[in-house]
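Duplicate of #3305? Posting structure anyway:
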């Protein structure tokens, strides 16, 4: 079969000054000479669109690639920050240690409609209501080779969690990270980060060991500090010319400040989440376009949040003539276990026909007594089978069809199909038309949550003494009738690479019809001693029509010099509901969950040998994470700068840099008055020994 077409990308070659001089001993990142050679050739094919290696022009949807040079130039400390560089994404900070990332809105303070993977391992958490715990991903930002973001629904290739999109973090090859590397970063807001990487070649096995810690104070005046620790081990064994064995293991621990001052039910305290995982992958590739892969991974997540509190209940809530002081023992601990096994085969059926087929099983077990009102584990098993067929009908036409069938023990079976046609007007311009149906199955929490709080000790009332263990109040009740969310996406895309101008243009026009969206609704509950009028349950009451345009243009004449311009126009139409319905469900506000306009300029300039200046400027329109008009943030801007200097070879391989984030004022990225990040300046040093 002919090798898939590749799109050519050329190689990319008074206070601030004083601050930089002070930070010179503190700051840098590795800049291997191999980077330049890597970017002299064609852009590597993307892997995340269909599970087949493809040129971006052959993918059935829009794919944004953030490569290692861009990651470094962005000055990002945390991985979630990089999604500001992708059209159509919204980022916010609930608190300084609780990032929010979503694509095309439809989110409250727990985004759960996008899939994130690390080398094919899903980090979509099976517990609670949120989809990705960004502090628990299990990869250091310096170990990332690139991030491939498929902008649009992709359940046909990756299952129900890829409802609005999928991002795959691809880490660097262990054979390219041999030797020892160190990193130190310090600056405003208590930023104090350290990292060490050691790589070894032992015969046919390449090893990488990474340990790092990130720390900061979070926002000013609230308890949202964070300390994230990470340790990972990667091993690649080249068994012979046809077989490789990859092993990954990791541990991540995040201690963070949560709660609010003077809050009677959510006091200031420290919480902890620990995650550990192990992955084993065998690849057998006897010929081009022939590969058999078997992957197994086990993952454990452990949360710790326990405190005792006496909660005053006023007469208006208890309907008694006095205030009740009720003692509670709040135990929000949880443990989530995941086992995942998948087999996949890529094969060439004919010179113009390629296919990938596979199947897998995943089992999640979640123990969270306070959330499910039970000490028993909640089990969820998902079996799936998938397939994709790529047919190059002529030099101009490429067709792609695929589907995934899932059987979920909570919601039953579902089918996610996709079809696309790509037409190459010339070797440098391609049009794409695609349609697909995706699903998102509810999490165990969404379907089975049953939060009933009981007193931890006896207390007195005018009607007598209430013994310990009495049900007091219910905040969440089970929602056994929940079904999977559905979305149908229609897309017209255009991709051009203007080689004489060193420019790539990517445009996506889309319509996404989301139905049966799972929303939090309110009702009156008499469960427990104290009735509530705002007990929460979930129902498939939401729907939205999302339409818009995403455009991105990149000029890149060298490895370390480029300019990217991107703009997104987005409109969301929700259902028309009565005032009575609006009081108990958020559908009325779905149109505000993404900004109508957002733009980004991201550029880097190597203005002198070994010196680089990078700039990112974002304009974000008004939106609401709460799905509530009262909590809409106003339009805000964010300007980030970074100045970096590669050390001369006589000193060592490395880089010193100073980064200034959000230097043009405060940002409102979550709700008015709650997330004033302000400006932050820090320096970094990385050395490779």
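Output from current build:
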């Amino acid at each position: 079969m002919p090798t898939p077409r590749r799109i050519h990308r050329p190689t990319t070659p008074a206070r601030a000054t004083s601050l930089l001089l002070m930070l010179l001993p503190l700051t840098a990142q590795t800049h291997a000479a191999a980077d330049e050679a890597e970017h002299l050739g064609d852009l590597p094919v993307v892997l995340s669109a269909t599970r087949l290696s493809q040129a971006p022009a052959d993918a059935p949807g829009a794919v944004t690639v953030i490569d290692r040079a861009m990651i470094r130039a962005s000055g990002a400390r945390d991985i979630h920050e990089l999604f500001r560089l992708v059209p159509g994404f919204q980022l916010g900070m609930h608190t300084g240690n609780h990032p929010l990332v979503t694509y095309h809105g439809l989110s409250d303070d727990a985004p759960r409609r996008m899939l994130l993977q690390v080398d094919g391992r899903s980090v979509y958490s099976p517990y609670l209501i949120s989809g990705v715990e960004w502090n628990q991903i299990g990869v250091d930002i310096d170990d990332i080779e690139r991030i491939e973001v498929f902008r649009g629904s992709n359940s046909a290739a990756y299952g129900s969690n890829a409802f609005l999109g999928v991002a795959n973090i691809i880490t660097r090859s262990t054979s390219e990270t041999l030797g020892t590397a160190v990193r130190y970063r310090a600056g405003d807001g208590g930023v104090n980060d350290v990292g060490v990487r050691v790589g070894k070649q032992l015969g046919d096995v390449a090893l990488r060991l990474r340990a790092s810690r990130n720390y900061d104070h979070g926002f000013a005046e609230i308890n949202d500090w964070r300390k994230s620790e990470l340790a990972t081990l990667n091993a690649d064994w080249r068994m012979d010319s046809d077989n490789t064995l990859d092993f990954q293991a990791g541990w991540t621990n995040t201690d963070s400040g949560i709660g609010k001052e003077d809050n009677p039910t959510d006091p200031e305290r420290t919480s902890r989440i620990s995650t550990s995982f192990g992955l084993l992958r065998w690849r057998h590739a006897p010929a081009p376009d022939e590969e058999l892969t078997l992957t197994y991974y086990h993952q454990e997540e452990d949360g710790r949040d326990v405190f005792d509190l006496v909660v005053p209940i006023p007469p208006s809530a208890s309907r008694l003539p006095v205030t009740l002081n009720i003692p509670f023992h709040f135990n929000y601990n949880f443990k989530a276990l995941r086992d995942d096994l998948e087999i996949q085969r890529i094969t060439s059926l004919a010179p113009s026909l390629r296919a990938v087929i596979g199947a897998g099983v995943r089992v999640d077990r979640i123990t969270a007594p306070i959330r499910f009102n039970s000490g028993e584990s909640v089990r969820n098993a998902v079996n799936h089978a998938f397939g994709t067929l790529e047919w190059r009908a002529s030099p101009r036409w490429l067709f792609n069809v695929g589907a995934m069938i899932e059987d979920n023990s909570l919601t039953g079976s579902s089918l996610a199909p996709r079809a696309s046609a790509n037409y190459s007007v010339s070797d440098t311009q391609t049009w794409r038309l695609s349609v697909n149906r995706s699903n998102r199955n509810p999490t165990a929490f969404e379907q089975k949550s049953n939060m009933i709080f009981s007193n931890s000790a006896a207390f007195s009332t005018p009607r007598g003494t209430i013994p310990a263990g009495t049900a007091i109040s219910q905040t969440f009740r089970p929602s056994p009738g929940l079904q999977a969310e559905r979305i149908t996406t229609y897309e017209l895309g255009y991709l051009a690479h203007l080689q004489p101008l060193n420019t790539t243009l990517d445009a996506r026009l889309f319509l996404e019809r989301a139905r049966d969206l799972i929303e939090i609704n309110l009702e009156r509950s008499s469960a427990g001693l104290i009735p509530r009028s705002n007990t929460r349950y979930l129902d498939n009451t939401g729907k939205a029509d999302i339409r818009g345009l995403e455009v991105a243009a990149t000029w890149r004449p060298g490895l370390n010099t480029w300019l990217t311009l991107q703009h997104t126009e987005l409109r969301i139409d929700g259902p028309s509901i009565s005032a009575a319905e609006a009081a108990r469900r958020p559908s009325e506000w779905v149109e505000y969950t993404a900004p109508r306009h957002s733009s980004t300029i991201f550029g880097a300039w190597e203005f002198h040998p070994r010196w680089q200046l990078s700039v990112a400027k974002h304009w974000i329109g008004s939106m609401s994470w709460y799905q509530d008009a009262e909590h809409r943030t106003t339009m805000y801007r964010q300007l980030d700068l970074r100045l970096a200097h590669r050390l001369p070879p006589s000193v060592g391989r490395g880089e010193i840099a100073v980064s200034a984030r959000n230097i043009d004022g405060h940002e409102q990225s979550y709700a008015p008055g709650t997330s004033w990040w302000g400006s932050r300046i820090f320096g970094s040093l990385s050395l490779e020994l």
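Confirmed duplicate; merging threads. The chain has one domain: 15-234+243-267+276-316+325-347+357-373+382-688. Helices lie at 15-23, 34-38, 68-74, 155-158, 315-318, 369-372, 444-448, 579-582.
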